[in-house]
Design brief:
The complex is a heterodimer of chains A (about 350) and B (about 270). Chain A contains four helices and 13 strands. Chain A is an alpha+beta fold and about 350 residues long. Chain A is flat and about 100 Å long. The N and C termini of chain B lie far apart (about 110 Å). Chain B is built from 13 helices and two strands. Classes of the chains: A alpha+beta (about 350), B mainly alpha (about 270). Chains A and B meet through helix 2, strand 5 and strand 8 of A and helix 9 and helix 10 of B.
Chain lengths: ~350, ~270
């Protein structure tokens, strides 16, 4: 920039001038490109009139749409829901027309009826003149000297202390991100001997309530999904054919009579896993396609989940009801920092 | 009972004729009572039921047995039909999924190849193989007299049990490896009921004790209600939410803006 500041650069571009005769002058402070390479186009009065009519017609179309919008707004009473549909269409289309035709008319006006030529505008230098800069430096230094920031250390240090403390203050507000979940992440609402109840009907689930290849979403008895800390408790109870289940080591008695119970929260991002394919025995998470093999203790066969779904140890009591042996033996849901 | 209680260790030959007589009379009475009480319709149609099974067997041998086996025992390419019940036949053949047109991830819905009478016959035959869920009677699935409570409960049941695969308004969705949960917009209430009770393809089975008739009816009422709901917002774009709306917005909306910008800036 600065090396050419003495002699401003001037680019001469080939001009396309259609009708103006004397545009080779300064138009509104702008340098207008020379036009002598190309003679001005012959002005065709008939064509111009035709263009004028065309643009005017488009503006009138816009006006008609605006009137149509007003009529539609008044005329269509919203008595029932089907009127709403008609109203939406009429108002939407007329407003589109009103704004759209206005814009199209304006663009066509400039395209068909305005002269076309190119102008060059020079950028002014960004830096202030040397005299201004020198004056600013003098005023600034004088002010600094009069302030005595260097001469008065007590004031300087107390000011820095006050301003610094104010800067630290937002860190204290991070506390509002809490309270910390403490132990709630490690437990669910399942307790020893809690009966498995249907999440909707709240009825305790008995052996035989589920067909082979069927499933049920269950909660601990007396706990609703809306209750405090209950959101991680839903369990999906699936009935497999006898002998299909391949238990994890040490979990041989967790799946009585082919019924297996797994936590419904995906171990990736905590979405509810509800897609069960009864032929492939896969549970499928709708959020990121993590897929779990139900026959093999819900280990991950595909997707971003890092761990198998936690299994709920269950047993069948004397009356045939399912009960939990205990809470989950590991934290449920997605990973978290303190999980280890 | 009283006889044996009164004389527990007496040999039975003590009063042989009277004992036999009591048994004969008791059995006869029970038989007559049963004949009187038992539903007359079923008794009257038992012979036509047999005919139906015979006709169904013939149709089965022609159309189904090459894959499902001569006795419906299944084969390497097709599952056993023993115990799947009449409802499964009515669903699979009634929605055109069976007979299979081509092997794929799952049977596709198409125009049924059999008349309802033929389907009923095949259903009766498969039912005779080993029981299973029966074709529901209209009063079991009909969605009449819908109350707000039905819709609230049906909606909750649908969202708990069905929505994870079929979408919250029953528009269906993708499963793994090319399989999918079908759109339920045009599925008849009977077929919805049968699908729940038989669990076709990868759908879990929701038997009578998992979802009883009333709960199934409420789910059907909810489905019928939302499919008849007016949708005045213009084109619904599949009603599958922000994915299709965003796609149309980006492609059509921004595309139009780019075209308009190019037109405004174009040299004459």
């Amino acid at each position: 920039m600065s090396e050419t500041s003495g002699a401003p650069r001037r680019r001469r571009l080939p001009a396309t001038i259609r009708r103006a005769k004397d545009v080779d002058a300064r138009v509104g402070g702008r340098e207008v490109a020379a036009h002598d390479e190309q003679p001005p186009a012959v002005v065709d009065a008939h064509a111009e009139q035709k263009s004028e009519r065309q643009v005017a017609l488009i503006f009138l179309a816009s006006a008609a749409c605006t009137v149509g919008f007003a009529i539609g707004y008044v005329a269509i009473g919203l008595k029932n829901i089907n009127d709403v549909e008609l109203s939406n269409y009429v108002l939407g289309l007329t407003l589109t027309g009103a704004l759209g035709f206005l814009g199209i008319g304006m663009v066509l006006w400039t395209k068909l009826l305005m002269p076309h030529y190119q102008v060059t505008e020079e950028r002014h230098p960004f830096a202030s003149p040397d005299a201004d800069r020198q004056e600013f430096a003098e005023v600034f230094n004088q002010g600094l000297d009069e302030l005595g920031l260097v001469r008065r250390p007590i004031l300087r240090r107390s000011l820095l202390t006050a301003a610094g403390l104010l800067g630290v203050l937002p860190i204290f507000m991070l506390r509002d991100l809490g309270p910390k979940p403490e132990k709630t992440l490690f437990h669910t609402r399942w307790t020893k001997d809690a009966r498995l109840t249907d999440i909707v009907s709240k009825q305790p689930v008995k052996v035989g309530d589920i067909e082979i290849g069927g499933l049920m979403t269950v909660m601990p008895e007396g706990v609703a999904i809306e209750d405090k800390n209950a959101a991680t408790s839903p369990v999906i109870l699936i009935r497999l054919r006898l002998g299909e289940n391949v238990p994890y080591k040490g979990r041989e008695d967790w799946a009585p009579e082919g019924y297996v119970a797994y936590n419904k929260l995906c171990t990736h991002a905590g979405c509810p896993i509800g897609l069960y394919e009864q032929q492939t025995h896969q549970l499928f998470c709708p959020c990121h396609q993590s897929t779990f093999n139900v026959l093999k203790h819900c280990r991950v066969v595909f997707g971003p989940a890092a761990r198998p779904l936690p299994q709920l140890p269950i047993y069948i009591d004397d009356q045939g009801y399912f009960r939990a042996r205990s809470d989950f033996t590991e934290p449920v849901g997605p990973s978290f920092w303190e999980r280890g | 009972m009283t006889d044996t209680n009164a004389a527990p260790r007496r040999p039975i030959s003590r009063r042989p004729i009277s004992a036999y007589l009591v048994i004969v009379i008791a059995l006869g009475t029970i038989g007559f009572l049963y004949a009187a009480v038992a539903p007359s319709g079923r008794a009257a149609t038992s012979s036509s039921q047999e005919d139906l099974v015979v006709k169904g067997n013939q149709l089965f041998l022609q159309g189904c047995s090459s894959c499902h086996g001569l006795q419906g025992q299944g084969s390497e390419v097709a599952p056993s039909l023993i115990g799947v019940g009449a409802a499964a036949v009515d669903f699979q053949v009634g929605t055109g999924r069976m007979p299979l047109a081509e092997r794929g991830a799952q049977p596709l819905e198409k125009t049924p190849r059999y008349t309802q009478a033929d389907i009923d016959a095949m259903a009766a035959f498969v039912q005779s193989l080993g029981g299973g869920p029966l074709v529901p009677r209209p009063e079991e699935y009909a969605a009449s007299g819908t109350t707000p409570e039905d819709l609230a409960e049906g909606g909750e049941l649908f969202r708990t049990n069905c929505a994870s695969c079929h979408n919250f308004v029953g528009k269906g969705g993708a499963l793994t490896h090319g399989k999918y949960a079908p759109d339920l917009t045009d599925t008849t209430p009977k077929h919805v009921y049968e699908a729940m009770s038989t669990g076709p393809a990868n759908m879990p089975i929701f038997g009578e004790r998992t979802l009883n008739d009333e709960e199934k009816q409420r789910i059907i009422k909810y489905l019928v209600h939302i499919r008849n709901m007016p949708d005045p917002g213009g084109n619904s774009l599949g009603r599958i939410g922000p994915v299709s709306e965003g796609l149309v917005g980006w492609l059509v909306g921004i595309g139009l803006l780019v075209v308009a910008t190019v037109w405004i800036g174009a040299r004459p």
